[in-house]
Design goal:
627 residues, Anthranilate synthase, Rossmann fold, 2 domains, eight-stranded mixed sheet, 30 strands
Length: 627
């Protein structure tokens, strides 16, 4: 009966349904119901006449505008299926029923030529990362082709191929609604909320299995890559910003782990925290994964808008399943929409992106997009499948193999990464905040970098009652009433006289100095403070985006994470400028921290996972500012 129901839905071109195979399950879930398109996440209809109901939603990238970020508007609908039927189909029996036909491709290729994509990469590295607009950005291109098989038959054929040959996917899925068909195998749960526990799963670093399969030696080379390691740390930092916004305990990281798939292996962390928010609000505050956008998130969206030639549709959005729970609310399960094929009118599109960082090689990033597209196309059987590179353990494999993560050398190399990270984010934190500054208030002014959420969380652990205010809505009466104002970090050139955001942050810093009220200035605001004190600002020869350094901070060496393209610089050996004490690099004169009467500042991000001495250094600087 259940399998015949799938046949009925497939035969009806107006029907809407979803097939989901979750990692480790031996069944495939079939969800069907009516389609409703809504404008906002808050409009997702989780109840009817007071009764909770299950809803599946396809959330397009353009919804990021709900966070106030920019995006090209292609009209891709926020599409909901109001689930009135939820069946579980035995996977083995379903495989026998799904179509298995040949779907040859024609007119295939990328929509952006390799040379043009490499030029875009060079521009983003030089003009965006090089100008301090952010630490990393993801720019996509699409592999496109045509085929001569019915759309639904092709999609179900590819879904069957994924069930048969792909492994390690978080969700393997196929979505059928009028005018929109998607089939994929997402490795990544972007955000999950169950029984008050929120989980995020940042994945970064892509190891493409070589011919003959992955080996310990080839994997060790990948895990030893500085670029791949820093790329993962940066996305963990970015997702911790989101966790700190939705979780009362800020979030804790565990890992790293290997995510082994058929043709690719990734590195990943898990982030967990507790939240009482509506799952739709959790989803809004976590749109979208930095692994497919960049960081800081708000500026990454602006960079995508400047450099991508067309809207993203559903690429980098999420598929979200809201399921009623025993508490009368809803659990949320939302994998990221990557490794996905979009089908419409005899054409397929496979969007893929490369993460661009300061170490990126343009031709290497071109190669990465080819590898990702080939991984998807090989998985669905649209191109020849590299069975050797799959390195599978199955009946016709030459012998059993252990997961590479179980190899002692690989496991030790993975574990060693945590030696670089802050214990604050590795250990349970709790949400009972008492500390040395209990009873004091602070306002953190957000200059468009949500590192402020992590910074506010750490300040709460030190006992402060903290409010976050965006630079565009931080009235003087709010700031004047605070015991401490924290002028936050942000992207861009601190010397930019045309930027309203930079101008406002200059006002915030200047007013606190003029009134003699306690001030802590971080990163961009540290540079603004230094400029106001007459210290020269200059671009770094190489951006310090996601860089960990041990630096002097007023008599103590501190291991701190840096995300800066500009620096304040004094002559080597300078210890004081006017009323300010200077802590600087003894060789270059790069200023790491400043302090004076009722103020302190720091160039690095004490809230970053890269700041092993972050919470101690933060307490020292706040103590000085408040004393």
């Amino acid at each position: 009966m259940t399998l015949s129901r799938l046949a009925e839905l497939t035969a009806d071109s107006d029907s809407s349904f979803v097939l989901i195979a979750r990692d480790g399950a031996d069944t495939v879930e079939l969800l069907s119901g009516d389609v409703v398109d809504v404008e906002l996440l808050a409009d997702i209809p989780l109840s009817s006449d007071g009764a909770p109901r299950e809803v599946f939603a396809m959330v397009p990238y353009r919804q990021v505008r709900e966070r106030g970020f920019v995006a090209q508007d292609d009209g891709a609908p926020l599409r909901c299926i109001i689930v009135d039927e939820h069946l579980h189909l035995p996977t083995a029996e379903l495989l026998d029923e799904l179509p298995h036909v040949s779907v040859p491709l024609r007119d295939e290729g990328f929509d952006i030529a390799d040379e043009e994509y490499a030029a875009i990469v060079e521009t983003v590295i030089a003009d965006e990362i090089g100008r301090g607009e952010g630490a990393n950005f993801v720019i996509r291109r699409d592999f496109t082709a045509r085929f001569d098989v019915d759309d639904r038959t092709a999609a179900l054929t590819w879904f069957r191929a994924l069930l048969t040959h792909e492994r390690g996917a978080y969700w393997t899925f196929a979505v059928f609604t009028p005018g929109h068909i998607a089939v994929g195998a997402s490795p990544e749960a972007h955000v999950v909320a169950r029984e008050g526990v929120v989980t995020m799963n940042p994945i970064s670093g892509t190891f493409r299995h070589p011919a003959g399969g992955a080996t310990k030696e080839t994997l060790v080379d990948f895990l030893s890559s500085t670029k791949e390691t820093e790329e993962l740390f940066m996305v963990v930092d970015e997702e911790l910003k989101m966790m700190s916004a939705v979780c009362s305990d800020g979030g804790r990281i565990t890992g790293p782990h290997l995510k082994e798939m058929s043709r690719l292996t990734h590195t990943e962390y898990m982030l967990r925290g507790r939240s009482r928010l509506d799952p739709r609000d959790i989803l809004r505050e976590t749109m979208f994964a930095p692994t497919v956008t960049g960081s800081p998130m708000q500026n990454a969206c602006a960079v995508i808008r400047r450099h991508e030639q067309k809207p993203r549709g559903y690429y980098s959005g999420v598929a979200a399943l809201f399921t009623p729970n025993a508490e009368g609310g809803h659990d949320l399960d939302a994998p990221i929409l990557i490794r996905t094929v979009y089908v419409q009118d005899g054409a397929l599109s496979v969007p893929v992106g490369a993460t661009l960082v300061r170490h990126s090689d343009p031709l290497g990033e071109v190669s990465e997009t080819h590898g990702k597209a080939a991984g998807v196309l090989g998985a669905i059987g649209a191109i020849d499948r590299d069975r050797a590179a799959e390195a599978r353990t199955d009946a016709d494999a030459p012998g059993e193999r252990l997961p590479l993560a179980d190899d002692p050398t690989v496991a030790a190399l993975l574990a060693s990464r945590n030696g670089r990270l802050a214990d604050f984010w590795l250990n349970p934190q709790g949400d009972d905040f008492t500390g040395p500054f209990e009873g004091r208030t602070a306002v953190v002014v957000d200059a468009e970098d949500r590192f402020t959420t992590m910074l506010a969380h750490q300040l709460r652990h030190l006992g402060l009652d903290v409010t976050i205010a965006p630079w565009s809505d931080a009235p003087e009466e709010l700031l004047d009433a605070a015991d401490l104002v924290v002028a936050g970090p942000g992207p861009g050139d601190p010397r930019d006289e045309e930027s309203p955001r930079i101008a406002r942050m200059r006002q915030v810093v200047a007013r606190r100095l003029e009134t003699g009220r306690p001030l802590l200035a971080v990163c961009l605001s540290h540079q603004i403070l230094a400029d106001g004190l007459g210290i020269a600002l200059t671009p770094l020869d190489a951006p310090h985006q996601g860089l960990q350094k041990a630096v002097p901070v007023f008599g103590e060496d501190a291991s701190i994470g840096f995300y800066n393209t500009f620096t304040a610089r004094v002559p080597a050996g300078t210890a004081r400028v006017g009323a300010a004490e200077v802590s600087a690099d003894p060789a270059t004169g790069d200023v790491y921290a400043l302090r004076g009467e009722r103020f302190a500042s720091v160039q690095g991000h004490l809230e970053s996972i890269l700041s092993r001495d972050g919470i101690r250094t933060l307490e020292r600087l706040v103590t000085h500012a408040l004393t």
